[in-house]
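Appendix C reproduces, verbatim, an entry submitted by the partner laboratory led by Prof. M.T., so that reviewers can inspect both the input and the predicted structure.
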Amino acid sequence: MCGGRGTRLGSETEKPLYPIAGTPMVDRVVAALAGSRVETVYAAVSPHAPETREHLSNAAIEGKPLSLVQTPGDGYVADLQAALATVDTPVLTVAADLPLLAPVLVDRVLDRFAAGEGHSLTVVVPAELKRALGASCDTEFDGYAPTGVNVVADSDSETMYTSYDARLAVNVNRQSDADLAEELCD
């Protein structure tokens, strides 16, 4: 998912293209997906991120196809629904603002989904972990915060997977989050 405006970040650069340690966040996410067991990578772009669309249309992922999916730019949920209408499920969804995502984390989520009897999977972290790291926490429910990583399946049932990995706790929504990601980047 890489079509948002990124207004909270307060940058002239489109949010997916915002660099962390010199590399655009979307490239970091694509690299994590490319290094994982994910077979095909789809980038959901919108009219709000034309430079991201152009950047990704020229991207090459070693050994895996990258396909662009156009969404209307009507917000995360509407764009997610538009993207899901064009791909087969189950599908792993990842926000482009997770610059610390790593292949091992993606594979861990896929393993957890495989063990979940086909239920959709929402990956969360303890909100306290986000606060301890100094990461922003805009959405919290019952002490947990969504990570921006999910697996959407055909099932109406949903399972929550709690990760305690700090790399999933840093979504770059504000400049302070970008600074934190820079500090934690290897």
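The beta strands are 19-20, 23-24, 41-45, 66-70, 91-94, 120-126, 144-152, 158-162. Additional entries are available on request from the coordinating office.
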